[in-house]
Predict the structure.
Amino acid sequence: MNYLETLKNITKDNKRKKENLILLLVLLVILLISINYIFNSDESVQETTMENKVQEQEEKSENIEDKISQVLSQISGVSDVSVIINYSNNGNTSVVYDTKETLNENGNVTSVEKSVAYNEKSGEKTAIIQMYNTPSVEGVIVVAKGVESSDLKQRLATALGNLLGIASYKVQVFEK
């Protein structure tokens, strides 16, 4: 039997016609839902990835004092270490801007309009973050048992200076 004849037979029968129409509508709804899900999941992955990066940076800066204390406690003769890090700022974020330029007849820019780019999800707007800058370290104080010698204090200050990217004179080591 030919496909064209089969289609003609299906359309002749009213009961079959209704069933086929309902089946077609159900398939279209499923297709629309799946397309919507695919495109929305891509956007949410991008948003989640950027939010995760920001959270990771914040957690790193918060937990670094504990990590440094644990590492310094492993040095021979050093124990019961406490570390305090002074930051000059809390870090900052760079957001993405939408830029709109107006040109005159000569092709020269007459005005530039910048506005923050937003993601809107469930009626809630959040700025799109381009980059998160970690806070810069201004100074460190270390208090520990077993750091009586000035040589050990200097070695700890140099190690922390190298680790944090600051001059060793910004690190103060005290005996507990």
The longest helix spans residues 14-73. The chain has a mean pLDDT of 78.
